[in-house]
Structures are given as structure tokens and as C-alpha cells.
Write a structure and sequence with these properties.
heterotrimer; A mainly alpha; B alpha/beta; C mainly alpha; A: mainly alpha; ABC transporter involved in vitamin B12 uptake, BtuC; 75% helix; 2% strand; B: alpha/beta; Rossmann fold; 8-stranded mixed β-sheet; 13 strands; globular; cell membrane (chain A)
């Protein structure tokens, strides 16, 4: 295995990680501030992708589509918060799991009702296709580089938002003491709606961006959702820093595992068995990683709640 | 509590209604109409129902249920159809794993099953059954045909890729069986995988001169979109499962130039097919996929056999099915000894259509009269 | 650990407010409203299939078997969630493992090949007794391993780590070719018992029914025992339990193992009912459905899982016949139940439990 290939695979891992971060940061924010476990987060990812695909197809502009995708996800998020989620804050996790599980069914089948069973078309705009040659001769798709860039920008923006703005201050206050911010005269109900919509918008952004690389279809949010949960649990639920670290860790481990495990097993097994065994183990790898981390650090690596 | 009693009464009532219509022929269709990948089920259903409508038959009743791509639900629906509704024929299942869950028990209970898609190797070989007919293909057919075609075209160093599950490993084995040469490498992806950057990098790093892949449904869409911007410049080949008319429209320009094997093409030149494609477009406003064609053929096969015998006369009806005396949209159609088709497999290329959207164009025949390799294991 | 009760320690929950613990179980009155509802539920479940069988409607007998088995799996999960406060999002793992044990055992018995030859020779078996015992023991052992790690975590972490373990097993089953991988594995002949004919639909239903009743009896017995009291205390106030000199961890672990063994046995019964196993039995969707059933019926109620299973399977069946968008309506119904019927069907039919 050459070094350039390793670098490329690392980049792939980082790129996967940054997209997972967009999903995971919203999830972890919602959990951190409202204490809500939201299985329907993958649905916002799907809403973002569908809205982007539909608007891109009718306007011809990916950027307008992207804006529409983010807006749609945020709006749907706010609506869901107002109608359903706010009744769940004082409920046990179990009720939250069930209600948001029900929301998955409603969103998936509702989307299919509106858009039909066929996957939608969505591709990167022409000015983002093609590849760039990195130092060392690695060719890397421009669009994926852009995704890494967006991921990094969003991380910085989130950091600034939370550490420098009034909204961020309230979010931090909400994470550490919920009663307190109410006493301070902050409109908690509105804060919650805003945080939920922000999380949904991040998921919608991820769905829109990744939708250009993947199949825009019903149920597309579910695999990402499970990965995002793994990410926030590894990172420590409620911690944005943990989500970033966990996302990169999961992205890199998953990517490298898929590539190098089959090769590793070929050292001492016949090729056909080795690829099968390697692929099977690669599929389990991040869950093993998660179990190991939780066995030693039951609250994740960067726990915000103790 | 009141509700429970009502539920109980409802059960008894609905079953007695079902008993009253034993005269007609009943067909139960279990297919995937909801969730991801449901466009396959929708097309099988629409193709099937189109043939039913065109026949003008009003004695045949078709009951349709959604299996949501879940084997246990499919199994339960099959029981519902057989034990409650007393259907004579079952059909409709899209996925191999669901077929494996349902078909053996259906045929064992003496009901006919006709597969409009899915042809797992076990059902063609050691678990074959006299009441099981596959009207579509054995799973290896299209992959094997592509192996033969690529060898014929002079590709010497293909790299091949499929998800790590039985249909995936079977696909690669089927390809290699008729390709006969050595492949550069075999890549196994995960079921439902959405990011293929790692595999694309491996393909680029290899010295392959061509890529053959089997990534059905959404997996294929994701892969091709990512392939387009990767800058890897070798031709790609696959089976129709990644290149039906609906999927390639979702892939867009990335699919252009890909070649794929199929047992049917909408521009296949025969009278039945012209009529089928025209009437399907008229009825549903879209170009049919191979799944619609398979559903259409399945219905017509059933109708042709019903003219000879009622399914209650099992032997006569089975003989009539085996004769396959119907006009297939594929042109010639006949069954091998294990009730799987012996058929020509075609090569299509994805091109830009008149409307600027990608579409398949028939290139020619990949292999003639292909038969699966499992029939020798089949003892009926 | 307060998995089930509070959202966060900062928002006191009503149920935590009632730390003056009322026992989770109370002496069931057979003559109260609750007792009547329970007897009717169980009676209907027993009598309707028998009637259907003698009227020749085999389908309803098998449907009743399916409901019974799913109810039994939910009884197992209810022990963990409802009584133990351990919100497991991975009980599909035990259901699936139980199923695979039945399937693999039958596969080797049919093929006359040994399951393994090293370190001991383990042949396949088509005896249900062997299969059931193996399912109980192996699912218990798996839960022991998973529980030992998972119970170190609490709250959402517990939900997620149980999910992660189940996913691990799901992916393993999906890509392990020996037993069919994603295609699953058919069971050609239903595993058998001495004397009775298990291929008879009614017989098999009665076996399942017995299993369900036993599982409910065990749960009920367990919760009335000192162990049950300790488990309830661990759920409601583990600090107090600890001050009483009892460590909550082993109590929870034992309850988790028993819960998994019940669900695993249900999985084995399900595999033989369907004559088929596949990784979908292990998927997180199934874990979610089991939770849905427990909540639908009423969390921590002895008859809740049964009521939930009846309702869920019926909805699945009836809605499925009406529209291809049935899952949309299923979602709406579930949402309505969570939002407006907090105590599940049993809460609505039979009134609240005293400690709610």
C-alpha cells in the first residue's frame, strides 16, 4: 500500500467524519440543551436532500437548492418541535424514543407519498466536479475537498456561535442549568425551538451536500443516524467537541477498516475468505470501537454531563 | 375490552366472506411497495396489472399486499393469502432473501409460485420445486453474461466489486464463471453502504482496465455519482439492477457510457414488446423498467396457462406453465428443466436520450441461450 | 441509574418525586376491572385460535401464534425496561440469536453435519427441548457479556450501547456466509417434541401460549420476590438501595439476563413458526418495534406486552390491507399513543397502576 493511497484514504475518512459531524453536532446540541433523544434526526437529513434535489431540478441551481434544503430542514424541524417534541421534554427517554421512532415512519412514508418511490436526481454543480492534484500526486475529487472545507467552517462557526454570541451563552446556560436560564428571564420555549431548528438545519445541510454524492431516496437518513449516534456516544453526549472528535475518529476508523482489514487478513487466509472476513469485521469495527470506549469511559470521551 | 371483542368478531366475519368466492382464480401478490427500493415492486405490480387489464379477464382476482422488504412480514402475508384467502397462485416477491423465506413453504403447501424477479441459486438447484417457476432470471444470469461479454470484448484486467452478502458473492462468482480469466482484484463493500471513496481509491491504485460491479438500487446510484468526479478513467460494466430506467435518471450524467446486461430492453424489436412499451407509457406515463417487463411476462404466462387448465388441476396447470406458450416481451422464452428461463441476455449502453436524460440503448446480444449452472442439482 | 425515569437530573420527574416507593407490583385482584380485562385478554387469545382451528381457519391460528410469540419477546423486554428501568434498544439481538439457534440446529440436524467438532463434538438437533434450552442458556450468556459492559453506563449511553451491540451482531449475521448471510436460512422441518406433533398449527400455538403464560408467571413471581423489590428500588432510587447495603449492579444484571433469555426463547419459537430465520430479526427496527409494543401496552405492566402485541400486529395487518402508505398511519397512531395515552392500552383499559 503506497503512502499516497494512505493519504487519500485518510482524507476520505476525514471527509466522512466532517459530514458525520454535521449530523452529530445537531443531535448532541439537542440532547445537551433539551435532554432529548431524537431518532428522527435522520429524517431532517432526508428532508434536506429531497428539498435540495427538488429545487435544484426546477431552478437548475445547486446553490439555490442547497439554500432551500437547509431552510426546509430548519422549518420542518421547528414545526416538529412546536407540534410534537416540546411535549416530550419532561417525558422519559423511552417515550422520546417511541415518539421519534414514529416520526421516522411518518417522515419516510410521507416523503414517499409526495415524491414517489423512485430515487431523485441530484449531482454536484459542474464547477465542483473534477478533481485536484494534491502535493505528492494524490488526485482528490474537488467536491469532497469542498465538503471537508464546509465541515471545518461549520465547526468553527459553531464554536464561535456557542462561545461568542448571546444565543450561545443561552445554550451553554441551558446545558448547565435549565432552571436557571428560566429564572434569568430567557424565553426557554423559543430557545428550544431555535436550537432544535438549528440542529435540523445542520442535518439538512449534511443531507443536501451528501445527497449530491449519494442516492436521494427514502430511508437515506437511517444509516447515517445510527453512525451519528455512535459518534456522539463516543464523544460524550452533549459535547460539541466530543462530537467533532468522535466524528473524525469514526470516519477514519470506518474508512481505513474497510480498506485495510481485508488486506490484513490476506496475509494468512485465502483471498476469497479474507475479503469476506475482512469486510464482515470492518462492518462491525466502529461498534466494537464504541463498546471498548464505553467499557472504559462509560460517559464517552468528552462528557459534558456527569 | 369492547374493542377486543369487536376485533374478534371482525376476524370471523372477514374470513367467512373470503370463503364464498372459491370459484374464481385468485392470485396473491406480495411485493415491496414501501420503503427504499420500492420502485421495483411498483413496476412489477404495474406491469402485471397492465397485462391483466389487457387480457380482459374478469374471472381472475389479484390481491396485492406490501411486504415492506421484510422477510417475516412476507412470510406472514403468504400464510394469509394461502390459508385465509385460499389463493391459487402466489407471485410478486422482489428480493432473494424474501423469496428464500417464502417460496419453499408456499410450494410445499401445494400452491404455485411464479417469481417475477429474484432467482436465488438454492431455488434453482437443490431446493427447486415443481410448483416453483422463475419467469425472470436466475441471479447469476446477468453477471455471467457480462463476464462473457467482457471477455469477448477483450478486457483483460477487470476489477470486480459487490456487497458482502450472498447475492453479492454469487454475482462475482457468476461473473468469474463465464469470464474465465483472472481478475485483478475483488472488492467487497457493505450492504447499504453509501460512501465509496475508499473503494474508488483502491480501484484507481490498481492497474485494472475495466470495472464490473453489482450494486443494486441506491448503492449503485451512490457509487456512480462518486465515480464520476473521481477522475478514474476506465470503462464500467454492470447488471441491469444498477441501470434500470428509474435509477439512471437519478444517477444523471455519471451513468453515461456504462454498459449493462439485461434480459430485456425497452427498444428490443418485437411486436409484443412494442405493444407493451407503448401501452405501459400510456397507462403510467413513464418508460417501463425490466421489472415491469418481468411482471408483464409473469401475468401473461399465468393467463396462457389458465386458458388450458385451472390451477386446481395441478398437473395440467403445471404442464401448461412449463410449455410457456405466451408472447414474451423478450421474444423467445422457454423454461429449462428446473423451471428457470433459458434466454438470451442483451447488452445495453447508457446514452443521453432525446430529452437530455440518460437512457438505455440496446447494443446487442451478450450471450445466447444462457442457462443457470444449478439445474443439475435440481431433482423434481 | 435512572434510565427510565427522568430526562435529566435537573428536571425532577413526577415518578422520581414519588421516591416514597410504592412496590412495583401489587397483589392482583382477580375481580377488579383490571383483573377482568386481563382474564378476557388471555381468554380471547386462547379461545379464538381454538375456535378458528375447528372452523378450519388455519391462518388465524398461526396469526395468534405470531402475536403470542411477539408478546413473549416483549414480556422479556418489559422486564428490563418496565421493571428494571433499563431501556434496552438491542433486544433484537437476543430474539435473533434465539432464532438462529433454532435455525442452525435444525440445519445441522437436517444435513446430519455437526455444528462443531472442536473442542467437543456438538451435533445439530431437531428437538425443541434442546433448542429451547440452548436458546435460553446462550441468550443468557450473551446478555451477561453485553449487560456486564452496558450496565456500567446509564441513561442515553445505555440505550446506545445496547443498540451498538445489537448492530454488531446484525452486521455479523448479515455478512457471515455459512448460515445464509443476508438471505437467511430456511428451516425445512419444524423442530419436534416427544409425543406431540409440533407441525400441527393448534399444537404449536398451545406451545407458544404456554411459553407466554410461563414467561408472564415468572415475571410476576420474580417481581413479588425480594429480588423484585430490590430491582424496583434500583430503578426508583439506587442510592437508597446502596445505603441498604445492596449493590444495584448485580441485581440489574441478573434481571437483564433473565429478560434476554425470555426474549431469546421467543426468538427460537418465532423461527420455528416461520420456518425461517434472517438477519432482519436482529435489526434495530425490530428492537424499536419491541419497544413500541411494550409502550403501546403499558410499560411495567404484566399484561402490557400482550395488549401491545395484539394491537401492533393487528394494526400492521389491517392497515397493510388498506393502503401502501400504511406505515405512515402506523406512525401517526404510535405518536398519538405516546402523546395522549401515557399509560398504554392497559392503562386505558384497566386503569392506572397504583404506583403510577
Amino acid at each position: 500500500m503506497s503512502v499516497t493511497l494512505l493519504i487519500e484514504q485518510l482524507l476520505n475518512g476525514v471527509q466522512l467524519g466532517t459530514m458525520l459531524f454535521l449530523m452529530a453536532s445537531g443531535l448532541t446540541l439537542i440532547f445537551g440543551v433539551m435532554g432529548l433523544i431524537n431518532l428522527a434526526h435522520g429524517s431532517f437529513y432526508m428532508v434536506g436532500a429531497y428539498a435540495t434535489a427538488a429545487v435544484t431540478a426546477s431552478t437548475g441551481s445547486f446553490l439555490i437548492g442547497l439554500g432551500a434544503g437547509i431552510t426546509a430542514a430548519a422549518l420542518v424541524g421547528a414545526l416538529v418541535e412546536l407540534l410534537v417534541i416540546r411535549r416530550l421534554y419532561h417525558r422519559p427517554h423511552l417515550d422520546q424514543v417511541l415518539a421519534t421512532f414514529a416520526l421516522i415512519l411518518i417522515f419516510s412514508e410521507g416523503t414517499r407519498w409526495i415524491f414517489g418511490s423512485s430515487p431523485l436526481w441530484l449531482s454536484p454543480p459542474s464547477w465542483l466536479t473534477g478533481f485536484v492534484t494534491l502535493p505528492g500526486g494524490t488526485r482528490y475529487p474537488l467536491y469532497r475537498l469542498m465538503l471537508i472545507g464546509v465541515g471545518v467552517s461549520i465547526s468553527i462557526a459553531l464554536y464561535l456561535l456557542i462561545s461568542r454570541t448571546r444565543l450561545g451563552m443561552r445554550i451553554r446556560a441551558g446545558e448547565s442549568d435549565r432552571e436557571m436560564i428560566g429564572a434569568l428571564g430567557v424565553n426557554i420555549a423559543r430557545l428550544y425551538t431555535v436550537v432544535f431548528a438549528l440542529g435540523a438545519a445542520l442535518a439538512g445541510l449534511a443531507g443536501a451536500l451528501v445527497g449530491a454524492l449519494q442516492s436521494v431516496q427514502v430511508g437515506m437518513g437511517e444509516p447515517v443516524l445510527i453512525l451519528a449516534f455512535v459518534v456522539i456516544v463516543i464523544g460524550g453526549i452533549g459535547s460539541i467537541k466530543g462530537a467533532l472528535f468522535g466524528a473524525l475518529l469514526v470516519g477514519v476508523v470506518d474508512t481505513l477498516g474497510r480498506v485495510y482489514l481485508p488486506i490484513f487478513f490476506r496475509a494468512f487466509m485465502p483471498p476469497s475468505e479474507a475479503t469476506g472476513t475482512g469486510a464482515a469485521l470492518a462492518a462491525m469495527l466502529i461498534y466494537i470501537l464504541m463498546a471498548v470506549i464505553l467499557a472504559f469511559k462509560p460517559k464517552g470521551l468528552f462528557s459534558a454531563h456527569d | 375490552m369492547k374493542n377486543m371483542t369487536r376485533l374478534g368478531l371482525g376476524l370471523l366475519l372477514s374470513s367467512s366472506v373470503a370463503m364464498a368466492q372459491a370459484e374464481n382464480v385468485k392470485i396473491g401478490m406480495i411485493t415491496t411497495l414501501s420503503g427504499g427500493g420500492s420502485h421495483l415492486g411498483v413496476d412489477v405490480r404495474d406491469g402485471f396489472m397492465l397485462a391483466m387489464e389487457q387480457s380482459g379477464q374478469d374471472e381472475v382476482e389479484v390481491l396485492i399486499q406490501d411486504d415492506a422488504n421484510r422477510p417475516d412480514l412476507a412470510r406472514s402475508l403468504a400464510n394469509e393469502f394461502m390459508q385465509r384467502d385460499d389463493v391459487d397462485i402466489l407471485t410478486g416477491i422482489i428480493w432473494s432473501n424474501l423469496a428464500m423465506a417464502v417460496v419453499p413453504s408456499v410450494t410445499r403447501q401445494g400452491t404455485f409460485y411464479l417469481s417475477p424477479n429474484a432467482g436465488p441459486s438454492d431455488l434453482a438447484g437443490r431446493m427447486c420445486h415443481e410448483n416453483y417457476f422463475n419467469v425472470a432470471y436466475q441471479n447469476d444470469n446477468l453477471h455471467g453474461a457480462m463476464g462473457a461479454y467482457m471477455r469477448e470484448e477483450g478486457y483483460e484486467r477487470p476489477i470486480i466489486m459487490a456487497p458482502n452478502y450472498p447475492a453479492g458473492t454469487d454475482a462475482l462468482a457468476g461473473f468469474k464463471h463465464l469470464y474465465e480469466g483472472d481478475v485483478v482484484d475483488e472488492l467487497y463493500t457493505q450492504m447499504g453502504q453509501t460512501d465509496y471513496a475508499a473503494e474508488i481509491a483502491q480501484i484507481r491504485a490498481s492497474d485494472a482496465d475495466s470495472l464490473f460491479f453489482f450494486l443494486p438500487g441506491g448503492m449503485g446510484i451512490s457509487f456512480m455519482k462518486q465515480w464520476e468526479s473521481s477522475g478514474v478513467d476506465i470503462p464500467i460494466f454492470g447488471a441491469a439492477f444498477s441501470f434500470d430506467e428509474i435509477l439512471i435518471k437519478a444517477v444523471g450524467s455519471a451513468a453515461i457510457g456504462a454498459r449493462n446486461t439485461s434480459l430485456w430492453a425497452y427498444d428490443l424489436d418485437n411486436e409484443t414488446n412494442h405493444r407493451f412499451v407503448d401501452s405501459f407509457r400510456e397507462a403510467y406515463g413513464r418508460t417501463p423498467t425490466l421489472y415491469a417487463a418481468q411482471g408483464f411476462d409473469t401475468a401473461n404466462l399465468i393467463l396462457s396457462a389458465l386458458e388450458v387448465a385451472h390451477p386446481d388441476d395441478q398437473d395440467a396447470f403445471r404442464e401448461a406453465l412449463r410449455a410457456a406458450d405466451f408472447d414474451s416481451v423478450r421474444g423467445e422464452f422457454r423454461f429449462g428443466p428446473n423451471h428457470h428461463p433459458i434466454q438470451d441476455i442483451y447488452v445495453r449502453e447508457v446514452v443521453e436520450g432525446d430529452d437530455g436524460q440518460p437512457t438505455n440503448r440496446l447494443l446487442g446480444i451478450a450471450i445466447e441461450d444462457i442457462q443457470d449452472v444449478y439445474f443439475e442439482q435440481c431433482q423434481m | 441509574m435512572t434510565n427510565y425515569t427522568p430526562v435529566s437530573k435537573k428536571t425532577p420527574m413526577p415518578s422520581q418525586g414519588t421516591a416514597e416507593v410504592a412496590p412495583a407490583t401489587q397483589v392482583d385482584s382477580h375481580f377488579g376491572r383490571k383483573g377482568i380485562v386481563q382474564m378476557i385478554l388471555l381468554g380471547l387469545l386462547l379461545l379464538l385460535p381454538i375456535a378458528a382451528y375447528f372452523l378450519g381457519h388455519l391462518y388465524y391460528v398461526n396469526l395468534a401464534s405470531r402475536i403470542t410469540i411477539i408478546a413473549m419477546a416483549a414480556v422479556g423486554l418489559n422486564l428490563a425496561i418496565g421493571y428494571g428501568g433499563m431501556v434496552s434498544f438491542g433486544h433484537a439481538a437476543y430474539f435473533g440469536l434465539g432464532g438462529y439457534i433454532a435455525g442452525i440446529s435444525a440445519y445441522h440436524a437436517f444435513d446430519m453435519t455437526p455444528f462443531m467438532t472442536w473442542p467437543f463434538n456438538v451435533p445439530g438437533s431437531d428437538s425443541l427441548l434442546v433448542v429451547w434450552l440452548a436458546a435460553i442458556v446462550l441468550c443468557g450468556l450473551l446478555a451477561l457479556a453485553i449487560g456486564a459492559i452496558s450496565l456500567r453506563t446509564t441513561g442515553v449511553y445505555f440505550i446506545m450501547i445496547t443498540l451498538a451491540f445489537a448492530q454488531m451482531i446484525y452486521y455479523f449475521a448479515n455478512s457471515w456466509p455459512t448460515y445464509g448471510g443476508e438471505d437467511g436460512l430456511p428451516i425445512y422441518l419444524r423442530n419436534s417434541l416427544p409425543i406431540v406433533d409440533t407441525t400441527n398449527a393448534l399444537t404449536y400455538f398451545l406451545i407458544c401460549f404456554t411459553g407466554l403464560v410461563l414467561a408472564m408467571a415468572i415475571t410476576s413471581r420474580l417481581m413479588k420476590s425480594r429480588f423484585g423489590a430490590a430491582l424496583t428500588m434500583a430503578r426508583l432510587n439506587d442510592v437508597r438501595l446502596a445505603t441498604a447495603g445492596i449493590s444495584p449492579y448485580p441485581i440489574r444484571l441478573v434481571a437483564f439476563v433473565i429478560s434476554a433469555a425470555i426474549t431469546g426463547l421467543a426468538g427460537a419459537l418465532y423461527a420455528d413458526l416461520n420456518g425461517f430465520i434472517s438477519p432482519t430479526m436482529l435489526s434495530w427496527h425490530f428492537s424499536g418495534e419491541l419497544m413500541v409494543i411494550v409502550i403501546l401496552g403499558g410499560v411495567g405492566r404484566l399484561y402490557g406486552p400482550l395488549a401491545g402485541a395484539i394491537l401492533f400486529v393487528m394494526m400492521e395487518m389491517l392497515l397493510g390491507g388498506i393502503t401502501e402508505y400504511w406505515q405512515l398511519f402506523l406512525g401517526l397512531v404510535l405518536l398519538g399513543v405516546v402523546l395522549f395515552a401515557k399509560h398504554g392500552v392497559m392503562g386505558w383499559l384497566a386503569g392506572r397502576e397504583r404506583n403510577e
